[in-house]
UniProtKB/TrEMBL annotation, chain A:
Record-linked SUPFAM superfamilies: P-loop containing nucleoside triphosphate hydrolases (SSF52540)
Extent of the signal sequence: none
UniProt entry tagged with the keyword Nucleotide-binding: yes
Keywords annotated in UniProt: ATP-binding, Nucleotide-binding, Translocase, Transport
Protein's job: Part of the ABC transporter complex HmuTUV involved in hemin import. Responsible for energy coupling to the transport system.
UniProt family annotation: Belongs to the ABC transporter superfamily.
InterPro entries the record matches: AAA+_ATPase, ABC_transporter-like_ATP-bd, P-loop_NTPase
Organism lineage string: Bacteria, Pseudomonadati, Pseudomonadota, Alphaproteobacteria, Hyphomicrobiales
Pfam families, A to Z: ABC_tran (PF00005)
Name used for this protein in its record: ABC transporter ATP-binding protein
From TrEMBL, chain B:
Similarity comment: Belongs to the binding-protein-dependent transport system permease family. FecCD subfamily.
Predominant place of localization: membrane
GO molecular function: transmembrane transporter activity
Native organism: Tianweitania sediminis
Subcellular location: Cell membrane
Coiled coil regions in record: none
GO process terms (BP): siderophore-iron import into cell
Domain of life: Bacteria
UniProt topology in membrane: Multi-pass membrane protein
Pfam families: FecCD
Protein name according to UniProt: Iron ABC transporter permease
GO CC aspect terms: plasma membrane
Entry keyword annotation includes Transmembrane: yes
Transmembrane annotation, as ranges: 20-37, 77-94, 106-128, 135-155, 214-232, 257-284, 296-314, 326-346
Length: 254, 352
């Protein structure tokens, strides 16, 4: 159990955004988090990464309370990629990706050839080689998303927490990023909007109203009835004749 | 696949080299600031005075020249350098932490708060001599920043990208409030003589700088510089906001408290020595970014050097531009700074 929460809750001005989440994440698995807007996915990810302090319960990372660990130690284990992290600084893609090495470098420790190699690998894995000198402001939404992911990879984390990493991406990069994440030897928790992408995770957690209402293998959790209950749409499951994969199709409720 | 491995053979040597270069530039600026004045003094005389004072060389010199150089111009140039460094570095730190290109100790009301604190101690006599002018300025600076930050946060701004306008607006409100308080205290408590002196000091004035000021300004400027160097990577990590800085292993709260504390201290000490000088903290960091890029490992030291050289030059100008009269240095920095400030605003609009 690499990451575990017990009765985890977070409220702001008396309103519970996340409550009563008991979640145990196994080493090496890819866990998809799904749920409608405002169901608490992003907040749960921030709590898991120790970015927010829980108002109830606790998160334990490799058996230790994450709140008691030094930030730097946590960042050597967990990389957290949030939605819409933007900057007005005139930084280049390479500057941004190099930031991923921050947890591994002391205040006065110089940059090493090993750091160069890790940054180059991260750029290659996210298909961003050749973009190093590009100014951040000139990138498209999808390119920014990939550069952020490259920064997270440069952290060389054991756990990746990704908040809708496929937003803004074209279909080719959506598939290649998800493929990359599941092929990496890391534990990954990914907030997703696309239920068909969630089907390919090892396990899926369903959030609704700040609670984790279901957790398990995708084929068990993602039933037509649950999708209807949680998302308020009608759904049907069809099978792709090419490879027998199950797919969701949605209809507006009427 | 091509690996973009930039070979960096001896990082420490190149760091040392850049440091030495910066020191030489700084030294040259201080010496130039000592030579140039209403009565120009030849470089050899300055060198001989320095040799006499520092090494006991014993050159026969006019005692008036010696006095002007050793007691007035040299400490003045050193204090100018320290103030330039301190204010410019405060600007870099605030701009990164608040993620706002317009942040600087003057605009955010920190300088105004420091002035109020200093005036409260000197004129109104608060603390009955137990509190020094610098400490009063420090408390004023910190109060002003807390007020401005609190107001910006309450107005929904804070440090998010969307709310960058709020902190500047709050800063303007804070500046006005503290400047009004300063005027109130002066009008109520100061006699005419004191009032004239204080008003001149408030606009920024280095003519009172002596050796005791040097012994205060140098360590504080060094403290500011060392803090920026030590926290360079942390400041870089704030590029994508406080949450991402935390995700990169930066203890956000501690870093903010330490760096804003240092900024307030540096600003307060400089204001207590020379009064409040605008635009240095705003303009110099942008000039330095233009020259060395946005990474704080280079940006911090570059800002420090450029700030020092800029303020020495501004001081020389303020002494020489009108024969027989000394302009407040704040007038010079504002004359240079205001147009550059306008440029930054226009550029900011285009990139948004």
């Amino acid at each position: 159990m690499i990451l575990r929460t017990k009765d985890l809750g977070w409220s702001v001005r008396g309103k519970a955004i996340v409550s009563g989440v008991d979640l145990a994440i196994n080493e090496g698995e890819t866990l998809g988090l799904i749920g409608p807007n405002g169901s608490g996915k992003s907040t749960l990810l921030k709590l898991l990464g120790g970015i927010r302090q829980p108002t109830r319960g606790a998160v334990s990372l490799q058996g230790r309370d994450i709140a008691s660990m030094p930030r730097r130690k946590v960042a050597q284990i967990i990389a957290f990629l949030e939605q819409q992290a933007e900057t007005t600084e005139a930084i280049t893609v390479r500057d941004a990706v190099e930031l991923g090495r921050t947890p591994w470098l002391g205040p006065l420790q110089p940059w090493s050839p090993e750091d160069d190699r890790i940054v180059a690998d991260a750029l290659r894995d996210t298909d961003m080689t050749g973009f190093e000198k590009r100014q951040w402001a000139t990138l498209s939404g999808g390119e920014r998303q990939r550069a952020h992911l490259a920064r997270s990879l440069a952290q060389r984390p054991e756990i990746l927490l990704l908040d809708e990493p496929t937003n803004h991406l074209d279909i080719q990069h959506q598939l290649s990023i998800l493929q990359l994440v599941s092929s990496l030897p890391v534990t990954a928790v990914i907030a997703l909007h696309d239920l068909n992408q969630a089907l390919s995770c090892d396990r899926v957690g369903v959030m609704a109203g700040g609670r984790l209402v279901a957790l398990g293998k995708p084929e068990d959790v993602l039933s037509v009835e649950r999708v209807t209950a949680v998302f308020g749409v009608r759904a049907s499951i069809i099978t792709d004749p090419a490879d027998g994969t199950r797919l969701f199709r949605f209809h507006s409720p009427s | 696949m091509t690996v973009v491995a930039v070979h960096r053979p001896n990082v420490y040597a190149s760091r040392l080299g850049r440091g030495a270069l910066g020191f030489v530039v700084l030294l040259a600026a201080v010496v130039a600031g000592t030579c140039i004045g209403e009565t120009p003094i030849p470089l050899t005389t300055v060198a001989q005075v320095l040799a006499n004072k520092l090494l006991g060389a014993g050159y026969p010199l006019d005692p008036i020249d010696t006095g002007i150089i050793w007691n007035y111009r040299l400490p003045r140039a050193i204090v100018a350098a320290c103030c330039g460094t301190g204010l410019a570095i405060s600007g870099v730190v605030l701009q990164s932490l608040l993620r706002n290109a317009l942040a600087d100790p003057y605009l955010l009301g920190i300088s105004a708060g420091a002035s109020t604190g200093a005036v409260t101690v000197t004129i109104a006599g608060l603390g009955a001599g137990a509190v020094s002018m610098s400490l009063g300025a420090f408390i004023g600076a910190l109060l002003a920043f807390l007020l401005v930050a609190g107001l910006a946060k309450a107005a929904g701004g804070g440090v998010s990208l969307q709310g960058t306008g709020q902190i500047v607006l709050a800063g303007i409100a804070g500046s006005q409030l503290f400047n009004a308080l300063t005027s109130f205290i002066i009008t109520k408590s100061a006699n005419a003589e004191q009032a004239r002196g204080i008003m001149f000091w408030l606009l920024g004035n280095l003519s009172g700088a002596r050796w005791p000021d040097v012994w205060l300004a140098v360590p504080i400027a060094l403290l500011g510089l060392l803090a920026t160097i030590w926290y360079a990577r942390a400041l870089d990590a704030f590029a994508f906001g406080a949450d991402q800085a935390a995700a990169l292993g930066i203890p956000v709260r501690t870093t903010q408290v330490v760096l804003i504390g240092v900024t307030a201290l540096v600003t307060a000490v400089m204001v207590s020595i020379v009064g409040s000088i605008g635009f240095v903290g705003l303009v110099i960091p942008h000039a330095a970014r233009f020259l060395v890029g946005v990474r704080h490992g280079r940006l911090g030291p570059a800002t420090a050097i450029i700030g020092a050289v800029f303020l020495i030059a501004a001081d020389v100008l303020s002494r020489t531009i009108i024969p027989g009269q000394v302009l407040p240095i704040g007038v010079i920095t504002a004359l240079v700074g205001a147009p550059i400030f306008a440029l930054i605003l226009l550029r900011g609009r285009r990139t948004r």
